[in-house]
């Protein structure tokens, strides 16, 4: 893990930036404001980039084409998907032409076929494994076949367990919600979870680009950030997707990022990113102080992100912050911008 010196650009401390996609660069099929500019700037500077996504509904080439259509110069080899990672793992576990029951989008079936396995759809095809990924047309019949096959002895692989997907209209059920239905029917967990928070996508990206000091950028504490922690990588949480400042205050030690920013602009501007102490530092920082006692008070002045960093340090060190009170207009403004004003 590499530190970024105060006043320097965060991105300059790392030799690879690994982006999550949904909630960081895009929302379904639209670019997030500032993402096109930020990624274009990194490309212009020659910074190696990778895109590691839990979304198993598109092939790497399709993801790259989608991003290019939004003005991002992305190559297929820069994209790592949980569908491809799952297929590679299945190919290592089972002989060629083994039947695998695929529950998911066409992209997942294609990845399974391209590694020499045979995608099937029914229990009667005697699948050796079930692989389950997100697909917008998955229905009860698909989940029923998966449950029946696993109950009959097939190994159960899932591409990821994201409970929700971010969309411009708000979060919608993700693959984790579909996995939960099968889990409930079976009364047990999957045998293998491939995508984040497992570290495989991050470590594969680092190997592919020969990176020694990668930075993982994500919008979800429970997948992107926890995956980076498990992989031993520095991480940046951006507040453009699922996880909120309130979620960050209550993040377990296994899912605490090193930095937080409102958006990808924090990669370049030291004033738009805050360093977090992961519970080991003071609750003071950049003009703010969190004072505990009979009541918890935020005092001082500065940016709302710096206030968030001070609140995280306090919360992660055991100070209750759910009902923190502002002691000034500046503190009230910061808490309001963070959605933490009670």
Automatic annotation (TrEMBL):
Coiled coil: none annotated. InterPro entries: GNAT-like, HAD-like_sf, HAD-SF_hydro_IIA, HAD_sf. Pfam families: GNAT_like (PF18407), Hydrolase_6 (PF13344), Hydrolase_like (PF13242). SUPFAM superfamilies: HAD-like (SSF56784). Residues 287-340 form the GCN5-related N-acetyltransferase-like domain. PANTHER family: 4-NITROPHENYLPHOSPHATASE-RELATED, D-GLYCEROL 3-PHOSPHATE PHOSPHATASE. This is Sugar-phosphatase.
